Amino acid sequence: MEKKYYKIEDVSIKTGLTKRAIRYYEDLNLIAPKRTDSGYRLYTDEDIDKIQKIISLKESLGFSLAEIKAALELDKNVKNILSGESADITTIDNYIDMIKEQIKLINEKSNKLLTAKQRFEELLLKLNKLKDQFKEADTI
Amino acid sequence: MEKKYYKIEDVSIKTGLTKRAIRYYEDLNLIAPKRTDSGYRLYTDEDIDKIQKIISLKESLGFSLAEIKAALELDKNVKNILSGESADITTIDNYIDMIKEQIKLINEKSNKLLTAKQRFEELLLKLNKLKDQFKEADTI
DNA sequence: GTTAACATTAACGTCAAGGTTAATGTAAAA
DNA sequence: TTTTACATTAACCTTGACGTTAATGTTAAC
User: Fold this and answer.
1) Which residues of chain B are under the pLDDT cut of 50?
2) Per the CB < 8 Å rule, is B124 touching A99?
3) A41 shares a domain with A99
C-alpha cells in the first residue's frame, strides 16, 4: 500500500495547530517530515499521530516541549530495545527507573486533579441545593 | 486567638516559590497580603494556603495564572453566595454551568493522563519481562 | 550607632512558545 | 500563461512568568 502524504496546511487543519507551531516543533527535532524535491514538507499518518501525542502531552500533563521530547525519546529507545536492539541489563534497569519516575509523576498529577475535581463537585452539589430552595420559595 | 503573620522570606521557604514569584502573583491580584506601616508584606496562614492552591493548580492542571485567577474567583463567588450573599437564579445557573465546565475540563485531562499512564505501564511490563529473560540466560 | 540581614519599588533582561511580516519559490486552475 | 493559492526561510515581535540588578528603606543584633 502506498503511503499517503499530507502537506503542512492539511496537517494544520487535522491537528488544530498553526503552521508556525508545526514548523517550530520541527526546529526542536520533535518531528522530522520528509521533503519534496522542491523542499515542501510531507507528513505521513504516523507523523500526524506523533503530533497528536505531543498535543495531548502538552495539554494534559502541562509538559514543556523539552520534556515531551525527552519522554518521546524514552518511549522510542524502549521500543527499539523491545524490538531486538541489543542492550545490557544496566541500560534496561535505567529505562525501568525512568519509566517508573514518569508513572509516579502522572500519579501525583492525577491525585491533584482528583482533589480539584472533588472541590468543584462539592460546590456544585451545594449550589444545586440552593437552587432547589429557590424553586420551592417560588411555588409557595 | 492572635493571627500569625509571616514575612515574604518565610513564605518563600514554606512554599518553595521565589520572593519574586510571590510578589508577581500579587501584581496579578492573585493574593493580597496585609502590610506593616513601613510597607512590609504580611502573610497569614490562609494566604499561604491560597498560594499552595495556586501552585497545585499550576502544576497539575497546567493552568495559566490568568486561568487560575478565574477559577479562584469563581470559587470565591460561589462561596459568598453559599454563605448568604444575595443572588438571583440566573446567576446561580451561570455559576453551575461554569463549574460543570471546569469539571468537564478536569475529566478530559484525567482521561489523557490515564492513557499516558497506561502506555508507560505497558512498556514497563514488557521491559520487566525482557529483564527476566536476561536473568534466565545468566543462570544457564 | 553602625552593620548585617532583611524589606521595598522600578526597570531592564530572559526564556519558551509561538505570531507576524517580508521576500521569494512552486503548483494548480482559469 | 498568468493569477491564485499554496509553500519556503529569515528575521524580528510578543506574551507570560518570572530572574536580576540597582537604588534605597527598615529592623535586629552586636
Assistant:
1) none
2) yes
3) no
